[in-house]
Amino acid sequence: MAKTQPPLWLVTGVFEGEQVPEPPDGVATYEPWIVIHVDGKRPAGDTGKPIGKLCPLH
Fold first, then answer.
1. Mapping DSSP to helix (H, G, I), strand (E, B) and coil, where does residue 15 land?
2. Residue 2, SS3 per DSSP
3. Can you point out the beta strands (E) in 1-58?
4. Is the dihedral of CA 40, 45, 46, 47 positive or negative?
5. Of 6, 19, 7, which Cα lies nearest the Cα of 53?
6. Using an 8 Å Cβ cutoff, are 11 and 51 in contact?
7. Which pTM was predicted?
8. How confident is the model at residue 4 (pLDDT cuts 50, 70, 90)?
9. Can the peptide bond before residue 32 be classed as cis, meaning omega within 30 degrees of 0?
10. What is the CA radius of gyration of the chain?
């Protein structure tokens, strides 16, 4: 029987002081996660948030 691989959790745009978002409840992910941090605070007027995305491993 083939072994399934859990998806990778990739997070981008995490500025200083922001929390890394968690994967959806109940979804097993490959660890360690890949998190791209930005050195410094989010620029004034930038209303974005860190974005997490499930990436299947093929």
1. strand
2. coil
3. 8-15, 30-38, 51-55
4. positive
5. 7
6. yes
7. 0.85
8. confident
9. yes
10. 14
Q: Is 38 helix (H, G, I), strand (E, B) or coil?
A: strand
Question: What's the CA gap between 19 and 14, in Å, rounded?
Answer: 7
Could you give the dihedral angle defined by the CA atoms of residues 1, 58, 22 and 52, in that order, rounded to the nearest 10 degrees?
-160
Which amino acid does the sequence have at 12? T
Alpha-carbon distance of 5 to 40, in angstroms, equals 35
Give the H/E segment covering residue 8. strand 8-15
Q: How many CA atoms lie less than 13 Å away from 55 in the CB half-sphere?
A: 12
| pLDDT beyond 50 at 51 | yes
